From TrEMBL:
Organism whose genome encodes this protein: Halioxenophilus aromaticivorans
Record-annotated membrane-spanning stretches: 56-76, 97-122, 142-166
InterPro entries (UniProt xref): PgpA (IPR026037), PgpA-like_sf (IPR036681), YutG/PgpA (IPR007686)
Name this protein carries in UniProt: Phosphatidylglycerophosphatase A
Tagged with keyword Cell inner membrane: yes
Catalytic reactions of this protein: a 1,2-diacyl-sn-glycero-3-phospho-(1'-sn-glycero-3'-phosphate) + H2O = a 1,2-diacyl-sn-glycero-3-phospho-(1'-sn-glycerol) + phosphate
Amino acid sequence: MSRADKSAVPAPSFRRLLRSPSLLLAFGFGSGCSRWAPGTVGTVAAMPFAIALLQLPLWAYAILVLLAAVAGVWICRQASDELQVHDHSGIVWDEFVGLWITLIAAPQHWFWLLLGFALFRFFDILKPWPISYFDRHVHGGLGIMIDDILAGFFAALCLQGLVYWVG
């Protein structure tokens, strides 16, 4: 079966998500099924998890995010294969991981969390070089994840720079 255009394939039903653990995770527990800006909705859905992760020691936060990123390559590939479309717009596990990377070591204050959210969405949507290069040239599960991982790193660098600069 050939891969369909990602805009032509509707999001799976919530019932289908519940029957497939990889789809449930890839679609951010249903947040990726949003008809409006599923990437942004998925990033919002990732925020409570990020706040919980921030309660952990830095080393534990980093290990869990690394595991989520590695697992995400498999999760996103499985979901892509099941839907027969590469990087369906509803696959938002990459947004979850990207936001968690952005907020690593972030101060636990609403201002920094919202700024981290905005910085991540900025880099994820605009995909400046080299993010755009990897987005176009890496395929499969890693291809789905890599642009958001890089967006998270760039957003984290900006956020930490601002934290350092402000104070």
